[in-house]
Design goal:
This protein is mainly α. It contains six helices and two strands; from the N terminus they run E-E-H-H-H-H-H-H. It has a two-stranded antiparallel sheet with strand order 1-2. The longest helix is centred in the N-terminal third of the chain and has 33 residues. It is globular. It starts with a strand and ends in a 10-residue tail after the last helix.
Amino acid sequence: MTYGPGGYGPPGHGPPEYGRPPYGAGPPGAGPETSRRGARAKAAAVLVLAWVVLLWLLEYVDAANGHVLDPYGITPREPTELRDVVPAAFLHFGFQHLAANTMPLLILGFLAAVSGIGRFMGVVAVIILTSGLGVWFFAPAGSITAGASGVVFGLFGYLLVRGFVDRRPTWVGIGLAVAVFYGSILWGALPTTTGISWQGHLFGLLGGVLAAFLFREQRPAPRM
């Protein structure tokens, strides 16, 4: 016999918390935190997929209308072109250009967004502005630059250093995995290939590192 708030009785006849889980309780590990993680992962997947779909729709519109959107790329050092810093990150010069960015955006974008949509949006905004302004200041005169590759480099840089900035071993591991699988893209941040905006890549990478510090986790001070 067991003793609980209900008095003496055989095992299993006390309140729910004595000897058996309450009615409707899920399996072990299916608590509120697990549900929150699942919801965040779903929201991240939907957001990043919708983003990539938007990029493809814009490229279809561009191709079907004689590349009417291409002028919204960034022409350096012209004051009126500053307004194109943001739109340029959503445009591409052809489907091959977009296809090269699609898979990295899906993977790196999901990893960056899974811990919070608000933080992810702030990170991407910093990357787009840093990459776009870097192009505006330093790209060759007369060139037009567009594409999401600056964001790809920025997300790479963000994931690479986030774990160290936040002092989270899990994210350090994710950063190391990202470095193993995507580390070769760092060559794109060097002036080695004609026709590739290494300026957008380099400043996107720097923007991602900057965003890791700007949006680092604020932990409460330890109690004495």
